[in-house]
Amino acid sequence: MRVVSLDSEPFAEVLYLDAARGGGTTRVSLPLFQGRVSGLPAELDALVAAADLQGRESCGGRPGRLLGERLAEELVRLANRGLLPAPDRTGILLGGDLYTVPLCDRRGKCGDVEPVWRAFAERFRWVAGVVGNHDNLGGRTAGHMGDEQRTHLLDGNTVTLDGLRVGGVGGIVGAPTRLNRKEATRFNPLVEGVLARAPDVLICHEGPDFPPLSLPGNASMRELLEVWAELQQPGLVLPLLVCGHSWWPEVMVELAGGIQVLKVDARVVVLSRARE
After folding, report:
1. What is the CATH number of domain 2-273?
2. What is the pTM of this model?
3. Domain ranges within the chain, ordered by starting residue
């Protein structure tokens, strides 16, 4: 799958409450962008990619549901207005970190993100994704977060949905004694294993760095992706990497070797079919 065009400005936004640096709560907006992709199966009209939805809806100025729950409803509303494809022909790609504390006044806390997964699974064709380093599922599997045929939690595996092969690796590189962290000696082989299955889309919470623009990320992951891409046969359509964890001013970059990196930290990208 390949992004052929991406709008530079958002077409919509969702206002929400976020934990301010140093404590307290601030009001911010979640931008929604549109892009066009080649290689979208006939059964789908769009994919929605999002990550790091660490906020809560504003209910009379007070924190309410998790931002992801609010976003699922807003996407349906936009579809009903004809601004987006129908939800039953739209797949959801979640890149993790979907939790914020109930009072929305502290950053970096971990918690249950099942309500977000369930909100998307109840409204859209299917949802596939990974956990971030702040997501706690309490040992639940994807099947406990909605219809097993529509909810797919990935970590070192792939699933084929409407002809689209989606793979994923959750968490970040770090001390495995902490939540959703893996040593690099385990994380990188999981990524390689998913790549070996030729996914159309690869979802990871943590993404690569991008030295040409001084964008932060995992250098060893970038090196792995670039070397793997260079070894592929000419003409092979490379996977689209969807990731979050660290914010970039750029929505998308292309690594050496050709893999596109779609950075959806605190943003949403709706990918619809490119005109032939």
Report:
1. 3.60.21.10
2. 0.94
3. 2-273
